[in-house]
Design a protein that fits this description.
With 88 residues, the chain is mainly α. It is built from three helices and no strands. It is elongated and about 60 Å long. It holds the Pfam family Ribosomal_S20p.
Length: 88
């Protein structure tokens, strides 16, 4: 348990930041899941629309430090490849 005033404040800050990060990570995963569900259903138009909305969310998560930049790029790249394969 935190004893000093500064340690107590840091505990509060960490809890607040954790909640924000959890929300951002969940939002990113939701957008990714929408793309994957559209791909699984075989609907190319819906998948493309979902991908266009998911890409900025994934990159925003990387800018906020939720995921690494390369991880975000890899996720976008793989989703894009799957959507393109669906259209072909």
């Amino acid at each position: 348990m935190a004893n000093t005033v500064s340690a107590k404040k840091m505990t509060r800050k960490i809890a607040k930041r954790t909640a924000i990060n959890r929300s951002r990570r969940s939002r990113m995963r939701t957008f990714i899941r929408k793309v994957e569900e559209a791909i699984a259903s075989g609907d190319a138009a819906t998948a493309l629309t979902a991908l266009r909305s998911a890409e900025p969310e994934i990159m925003r998560a990387s800018q906020k430090g939720i995921v690494h930049k390369n991880t975000a790029s890899r996720k976008v790249s793989r989703l894009t490849a799957r959507v393109n394969a669906l259209q072909a």
